[in-house]
Amino acid sequence: MVTLPGFCLSAAIGILPLLWLTDIPEPATIALLLAAALCLAVFKFRLLRYSAIAVLCCCWGLLAAKESQLSFESWIQNPVTARVVITRTDGAQNHELQIIQSGKQYFFPPPGIVLRGTNLPEPVCSGQKWQMTLRLRPVHGQINEGGFDSQRYALAQNLPLRGRVVKAQRLSEQCSLRGRWLNAVTNATRSLTWQGTILALGFGERTVMTAEVKDILRRTGTAHLMAISGLHISLAAGVGWLFARFIQLFLPAHRIHFRMPLLASLFTAGVCTWLAGSNPPATRTFLGLVIWLSLRLSGRQWSNWEVWICCIAGILLYEPLTVLSDSFWLSVLAVAGIIFWYQWMPLPRRVAHWRWFYRHLAGLVYLQAGITLLLLPLQVFIFHGLSVNALLANLLAVPFVSFIVTPVLLTGLMLTGIPWLGKNLWRLVDVLLEQLFVFLRLLPGGWQELDERFQAVSFIGWGAIGICRLFLWRTSAASTGVLMIILIVFSFRTPEEKDEQSWEITMLDVGHGLAVAIVRHGKVLLYDTGNAWPGGDAAQQVIIPWLRWRNLTPEAVIISHEHLDHRGGLPSLQRAWPGMTVRSPLRWANHLPCFQGQKWQWQGLDFTAWWPPEAHRAPGNNGSCVVMVSDGRFRLLLTGDVEAPAEFAMLRKQWGAFEADIVQVPHHGSRTSSTAPLLRAISGKAALASVSRYNAWRLPSAKVIERYKKQGYTWYDTAHAGQITIRIKRDKWQIKGFRDQIMPRWYHQWFGVTRDNR
Keyword annotations for this protein (predicted)? Predict the structure, then answer.
């Protein structure tokens, strides 16, 4: 016989492989797995039946992943005319929508599309239906160690497509009820300081929050409070339960039933989920509440762990790609941590005899401390850091937001149409939020970046609880202490201790731009720093997170030339590490020179500048600083954006000097560079190009790629490989791309056609 908890555990195990599979099998393979599962289900052995359930659920997850990829192949070749519904919009240029019909075909679930920088011809709000002709392309993110995984996030959110509008016609002018409600609250709070936070709390619209507010929330570990999340859905359910219990005080005894408060809690949770636009975290929480309620009404006593695994399985069966969501795993581990914390480390019994205030304060501190400790591994893995004042911030912010701000805000939502009352309620919410953020700004400390070494160490909290609970500190104190010391020492070994002879070169995936990191002895020399744009740059988005995750210190930067896509991240890097030296051919203040014939050493590596001559004054690509890097055996040629005239000038008197094992492809693979004489002179084995998939110049050129291959080079580019890393050890070296070798996952693939730079 199969039990419900056993079924749910098997189902969850079956869907988990979606986290680490490198490829999604073809339908024929999935059909074979399905047949094998049905054969296993015939046997009466319980283990075989559970295995059959796991395989069946695995097939379900594989089919869901396969379905998410179908649109990539069928919709990106030509413009698609479809009927869409607006699910989320800022009313200006950024929109999210779902395709509900294309031709005679209807879609369920409807695939999501993100439009950025798109002005629609008529006023837009959520809930409207439009007829659009769209040019679609699959999501494609920059992939680097320590960086944000945008492809995984997009698939988890069911937003696998990006679009550009060719033609659009509004079919329905009226917004949805939620959209009209959102517009009314937006207008009512337009003059308030904390309007963005109010909309985030009331409707889950976090896009209107300012960068300063987001930074404060990140530094204090309170970001989870300022959007409709699992906490708010659960709180709404609790409010519904209390309201129903209050009503029951006035009912005759025969009208009172225990199901009424439970159903009322489910109703209020559903309303709150709807207000949030049914975003994935809110929907998952609501589904978990439905499962909990069903178990509660079944008439059987279920343990906390049984309810926990049933909720996980129900959510994953409803939407298998939820397994890719970081917020889902944070919620799962948070609940598991609470159960584990109170079962293995309960509060001392004497606390129950304290006064009411101190007893509840101790319980709140104890709960927050447990969650902070047990969530540390996931915090390090996902966010690469932690807030050192999160415990103190949440001790005040959680009850303040939950029991003071949220009830007033919900009242404001219901009464916003009453002019005088609604206006003053929103002012009260604004004042309350002002007081909260005054407190958060005054907190000492802040966000602490953690590197990859802390991944193993972060599990010490779980281990310490086990040691205390099992009394190993009494029976095996010496062995336990030695194991802890070995773990810490092994995790914090320096690069010199690991291998003094090795070094590496990493071409970071920065989109259109260039950033190459040469790493030795835990120090870094950067060749170019990527692009910059209004509000950000490649250093903030990619380079600095990568350096900190790898625990590397940049000591020097070479700027090849003055174009923004090569120097855009320099100011951010200089703010983070003011002591860096900068070398360039630009003759700028505080820049060391980089001109033909100059030689220098860094961390035992030899650097030789081959271009430009010191007399060269012309700006632009042909003024790029070309540098040869060598350890005596392995040679790397860095070329910046040099074009054919500079290539021929370099070769004129120095033909034999350019031999190298690896060359950085000049000018992102443009036809104006990479002449055949240069490639023959280099006689290299591999070529690395830094390019963006959807760039306006359609780089790299197919002719240039073919030219390299004819000369015997192996071609790599960041659009296909993501981050490219070369590890050199004495006379051996190896190239690894992030998508194929460093972190090969099906959701990291190049989706869509093989070559697509529209």
Answer: Cell membrane, Membrane, Transmembrane, Transmembrane helix
Q: Please check whether residues 581 and 721 belong to one and the same domain.
A: yes
Q: By C-alpha distance, which of 152, 142, 212 is closest to 543?
A: 142
Residues 221, 290 within the same domain: yes
Are 283 and 405 in the same domain? yes
What residue numbers bound the domain in which 461 lies?
454-491
Is position 656 within any domain? yes
Tens digit of pLDDT for each residue in 495-521? 544 566 789 999 999 999 999 999 999
Contacts of residue 403, defined as CB under 8 A and 6 or more positions apart, other chains included, come to none
Same domain, 467 and 593: no
Q: Which of 70, 86, 111 is the last residue of a domain?
A: 70
The whole-number pLDDT of residue 496 equals 46
pLDDT digits (tens, 9 = 90+) for 160-171: 999 999 999 999
Q: Assess whether 13 and 160 both reside in one domain.
A: no
Look at residues 175, 191, 215 and tell me which one is the last residue of a structural domain. Answer: 175
The residue among 244, 343, 334, 221 whose CA lies nearest residue 285 is 334
Q: CA 530, 532, 538 angle in degrees (round to 5)?
A: 45
Q: What gap in Å lies between CA 575 and CA 404, rounded to an integer?
A: 40
317 and 233 both lie in a single domain: yes
The sign of the CA dihedral 199, 202, 207, 209 is positive
Rounded to two decimals, the pTM is: 0.91
Contact 354, 189 (CB under 8 A): no
The tokens for 42 are 């015939």
Cα(27)–Cα(59) distance, integer angstroms: 10
What residues contact 232, with CB distance under 8 A and at least 6 apart?
201, 272, 282, 406
Q: How far is CA 106 from CA 68, 191, 672, 689, in A?
A: 15, 43, 47, 42
Tell me the mean pLDDT in the region 429-458. 88
The torsion angles phi and psi of 119, rounded to 5 degrees, stand at: -95, 120
